[in-house]
Records
---
Amino acid sequence: MDEPATSDGSVLTGSDMTRRELLEVAVVTGGALVGGQLMPGFIPEAAAQAAGARPAPLDLVLRVNGTEHRLTLDPRTTLLDALREHLHLTGSKKGCGLGQCGACTVLMDGKRVKSCLSLAALVEGREITTVEGLAQGDQFHPLQAAFIERDAFQCGYCTSGQIMAGVACINEGHAGSAQEIRDWMSGNLCRCGAYDHIVAAIQDAARATGATRGG
Amino acid sequence: MHPFTLERPRDLSSALAFRAHAGRNDAPAEYIAGGTDMVQLLQEDVRRPERLVSLAGLLDNRIEVGPQGLRMGAAATMAEVAAHPAVVEQFPVISEALLNSASPQVRNQATMGGNLLQRTRCPYFRDVGYAACNKRAPGSGCSAIGGENRWHAVLGTSDNCIAANPSDLAVALVALDAAVEVRGPGGQRTVPLIDFHRLPGDTPHIETVLEPGEVIAAITVPANPAAQRSHYLKVRDRASFEFAVVSAAVALDMDGGRIRQARVALGGVGAKPWRVPRVEVALLGGSLDPTALRRAAALAAEGAQGRGHNDFKIELMQRAIVRAVETAGARA
């Protein structure tokens, strides 16, 4: 699909916009609009804004998986969109974009966070680890291996977020029992319902790394 | 997201000079710290500031416990406070309230100051598809009154807004007489947390006493023998990662089997974090006898007004108080 163009000739990438804005721009530019009942009275004003002046881009440096990247980004760009659309690290997934599903989970300075809830420009200097940075060369992280062994996914969309959250859960010492894992993994949803296998994989990896303290 | 200019000031005084106004949808400039609530609201077009001023790295994040009590820098994260050994030991109600909030990821990102300033979960406030919301668009009406209001408040509401304050932390803090250190362009002032949030009245879009340029710098909790024997009970629709339907924060100072001092506050039911002093007084000098506890808890219902779907909260919050007092009382 062609990128929707704005009236000033610049190009908006879909990932930097919400679904609502994408619909709005599609309306303005005559692009395809699939489904969806739009609220009367809402479109013209918002569409005018989406197509209007854009804020000045910001120069920033992101440290991801041990590498520094210089980027020039719209200030609205979330860390998740910076990773996926600008650094092309598409392992982190966009599910809800609102911090509810956990598919975008990455580690920041070793702690798990939802990358859709951080603006990229505000995490300069932090060490970001994505699922692409987990394996050591050809060697899977023990939790990645356990997910394969336990068949801990069906469609796979939530998997990288589950694995990043699971790695943190083990490191924090919150993988002592199945119940504890369920509680501390509640920020990651799996709509296929692979939860039993995900819990088993985390238990396996916690045992393999000797990190079953806590409770 | 509505376009905004992002400011990344080098020091706090530069940030305050932008005179951003926390928690006001009509403010042209707003502050952002942990961002977990702000980014959701930006994504949903609920907030459309022209300028966003970052507080990242500018605020104190230390957690200190001493003879005076607890002091938490505004930038301390929920996870840091929840896991702090002295908080767990001496202020369990605070740690429990935090661990029962949000998800582990959000607790790593969200700050103490931001937690107190998070906006209501009223679905009508958070969905701009509904035109009527006095909190989002002053004068537009309230969709929740007469709408789906199972999640809404029964205490402190008005005919203009029945939104509930969503913070668990604030309920625990208000029970323990916490205060908010506010810093602004004109200097510093201290506001008791009980006075920090405003009731909706005729102006539900003004949620706190913060003036333009003011930020939360720290939160203090005075030392109190009751804090150690405290408990946070959260009743919700699923066991984890969910906001409270009803919650109760209780702190007790016991003299043998008698209650020497009681602190009780409620969440999920108030337009702001809701302390119930009449319940506290009724508990004084009594035992943990269930009949006496039920009689005291009934006083929480004074002035409560259900709006249909949330009528059940009036009974449920009384039961939550009884259960939380029993649990706290059973603690060594």
---
Amino acid sequence: MISQVFFDDLEHYFLAMRTITFQEISEAVRGLTMDAGTQLEPDILEALLAARDSEESPLARHVLELFITNADIASREKLPVCQDTGVAVLFVEVGQELRVEGSLEDAIQEGVQQGYEDGYLRKSVCDPITRVNTGTNTPAVVHYEIVPGDQLKISMLPKGCGSENMSGLTMLPPSAGIQGMIDFVVDQAVKAGPNPCPPIIVGVGMGGTFEKAACLAKKSLLRPLGESSHRDDIADLEKQILAEINKGGVGVQGLGGNHTALAVHIDSFPSHIASLPVAVNIQCHAHRHKEMVL
Amino acid sequence: MSLLRYRPDFFDSLLDVTLPFEDEALASLRAGDLISLTGSLYTGRDQTHRRFEALLDKGEELPIDLNGQLLYYVGPSPAKKGQVIGAAGPTTSYRMDKYTPRLLELGLSGTMGKGARSPQVREAMVKYGAIYLATFGGAGALLSKSIKEAEVVAFEDAGPEALFRFRVEQFPAVVINDSQGNDFYEMVRKAKS
């Protein structure tokens, strides 16, 4: 039999926890969705400006200039930066001392749906078998992580699929080593050619398991552009791979120049002694992402 | 070497091309030409092509006459009140490769998207005297400014994948494949190596 003291303690425990409501979450996600679709963040704008200033090909320079103008028009007129406003991918960090009133998942999906509707963003999500559009751009793909504290951090990455389709994953034998990983990443980025809207951002997951490598690659795209890995050996690999991709001759939109990629982000995770998964997630120059903390 | 018939003042001095294509202009365009399109075009992407094929397989007529037309691979974002259209940049073209030779055979003169085409599509372009254009992926807000009218002609239920007619003015593009078999992406790669 459960004593009254237990219930009193329980009530006290929940009253002391920070509480966040369904509506607070869905409204915040709605706003995040609308902003992410129409505004490029300073990190990607600065990367495009730097690329324009150091681009050798006159044509590529003009096209980069055009992308900068495009971002400006989109932001001023609240127009989507690109008509492919993507599948909504969200990384959510839930503080373990936070209490959510109602379903967190439902609140997020509701916010995404309203954001796409109210922001005049294109609904691009369909059933994989029938190819019938769901009409709401949901379900969004949501990744959760439980973290210390009582906050809710939501990072949104509306992912266009011209670039997503050029991504890939391989299970290398460990004997392939560092060179094997470099070759796979460079090849994946170069053979994509003009398809993923270069200059691209190359997210790489090295190690872990099949699904872990893919998640690392995607999440690495959220790292601010221009920030290197905190591990010196991996930071060197990022530089080396970026240089090799940019020697590949694809250039801006496949029209040439020395900017096929703007950045390479690598995240790693220990793997099995028999295994060496490598995932490459490609992102276009219309790199939309937005974060918030509730 | 002058790989491009390129002028540094780029957007001010593109080659003017009228739509639907005139035979002479179509034949004279070359891979690497930077052009400015004015006139009317049709849009279509994955669903549009699936439906075209289903109609043709059943021996039925397409909802539009493709002769001399340019088909733009785009799924625009919805227009707000007072706007002609939302963002409207190109989608990746290879997904339409499977369907394209049959449409070129029916008289379609050009396609526009981004990214390279298959060997089959390139062969068909030479055979039927058609061209392929790329416009600027990820610049949908800016490109929408060149679209002056937009109306749904067919497949309205397909939402962003409906078949639209656009009237465009000074819509910028690059000739990737000309009717002589040249491919600008290949030319760029070869010039680099």
